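Exam revision sheet. Question 4 asks you to relate a sequence to its structure. Input first:
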Amino acid sequence: MKPARKLVLAIAAVCIFLLALIAGIAALMGGGASMAAADRFSLLFLLSLGACAVAFLVVRELYGQYVRATLRLAEETGALVAHSGIRLADYGSVELRAVGRAVNLLAAARDALESDIEGRVREARASLEEERGRLAALMADLNQSVIVCNLDGRTLLYNQRALQELSSPGEGGKGELLGLGRSIYTVFDRALIAHALERLQQQKLQQDEGGESGESGTHFVTATRAGRLLRAHMSPVLSAVAETPDQPATSMITGFVLILDDITATSERDARRDALIQSLTEGGRGPLGNIRAAAETISDFADMPAEQRERFLSVIRDEAQALSKHLESAASAFSDDLRVLWPLEEMLGSELVAAAVRRIGERCSLVAKIESVDESLWLQVDSFGLLQALSFLAARLHDEYEIRDIRLALSRGGRLAQLDLMWIGTSMNSETAMNWEMDAMNTGGEASPLSVRDVVARCNGEIWFQRERASHRAFFRILLPCADAPREVVRSTAADRSGSRPEFYDFDLFRSSAGNHELDDLPLTELAFTVFDTETTGLEPSAGDEIIQIGATRIVNRRILSQESFDQLVDPQHHLSAESTRIHGITPEMLVGQPVIANVLPAFHAFCADTVLVAHNAAFDMRFLQLKEDALGIRFDQPVLDTLLLSAVIHPNQEMHRLEAISERLGVSVIGRHTALGDAIVTAEVFLKMLPLLAAMGIHTLRQAREASEKTFHARIKY
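Answer key, structure tokens:
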């Protein structure tokens, strides 16, 4: 129906209604004496009541069609303006639906333009992303721990080695202390870092004044919570300050880089050496004194009777034997530490054997094959020197004995690994083998002053030649020390849904070190958030229901850090009903052997330290946490934001504020619903979508968001 026709019909309906009303009143007023005044008044009252009811229904329908529908349309239009991919639903009258379709067309055109711009931006940033990928790959493969922080101690970058060294796994979850935006002071003492920063500032001041600082960066030694000793090198991160007419261009310290080396093994070795020296000193003083005294007595009294002389000689023999045993015992106990130090590398034994087969085949003109390898063996060796030694022996076998086929084997022999270079056929005598072991290596155009024995000794190993007459087989056997398999790198339990490299760096956080503001007055876009959710045995925390799962993810610099998550099942030590299992899918069998809440909650408290907590219907989840605070001696005193309340602030005219409804309005895909970590990730995505909508309403700081939330009707809900 055309709008003009609707207007004509509406006017006609109003006129007919008024005419009917007037006619009815006139009929009642002129009804004559046949109708009593009381009856006439009653009919007039009923007619007026009916007219009011009709007017109320008409006004309510018009309000719903034009006023409320317009407000809802305006709210969704605001969300559409802030986020692409959202479309308006059909609301109210035909005219409003036409407006909605027109807005959707504009949104489609806007999305097409944004898509084109994003494509061009992606092309322009391809080189930058390539460089970032190289940086991430480099940081991931470094053997040293690297951490970059701003002046507030917030972590901007770290690599896997740092995560491995500084995290503290516990019964109640990973307990990771390192993460983007986290404070480095949860790992290192604040006073220690402050002192090192002061030294960096002094060096910078000396350089600015034209002097020499004498060193670059500063060093200190500290201990981790796990008891490992770390040597740290701290160097400054400098940023340029623009030149002004009154001030030349300079640079200022905006952060610092920590490069960490684990020196625990070195310190332990040094301690053992000190103990060896002390043992030799203390243990040798007595026997040497007795030997000296006996020898001097024999020397001073040449005419001493033979029986007495024999007693003194016996003392010398006994003390010399005791001293010899003491030296042998010390040498045996500290033999590994007394060897010549050489930078050795830890590598998988199978990789060394495979490299030897390739090198021998390429440079020695013979066939080399692997006979057997223990895949679990890790070695601590000088791999380059050892490959040279094996190639040298293989070349001599080929050149002097025309051996064309050799075999390599690696196996475990007690505390040591046995690396065998074997062949069948012509053998040699032991003297020739010994000469080969002691000759300087020269093979394939590569000359080395070292012998095979030098290389093996450098690896703290031994070598010998052996023949098996029955099988007509001979071999050189090299005994090498085994190394412990490296610890597994700590990784997040959350899958990276984007499939990209984990986000372990964020240099935009350098900007957050500008000042020391109160948390409430900081913009929401500058805060770090822990978005969490719980699954429980029921809905009544005060009546004894317990947590059975906690899931959380972190938001730093308006990005969800999918690799920094907390996901832990909890043994509630409480009955789990079938009704709750139907909701979250967690069965009693899944909770058997899981840690109890007394172990999990402190780990979660450490995970969310120094952040703002975010949850959907946060009052429910926070009640479960708060009921455990006194018993565990912890306090969740961080600020809390609730996406349910924020939704009521942003969209007060919407009827539903469930997480699914909000996600649909804001164009967020719901994945993993009713799992703690899945709900936390969805809540985090919803929260990020809300930030620009809050900013459009003038809500920029944490204080403003909390005050707006407290004014909503839903803030009155208690648990």
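Marking note for examiners. Residues 29 and 56 are 25 Å apart (CA to CA).
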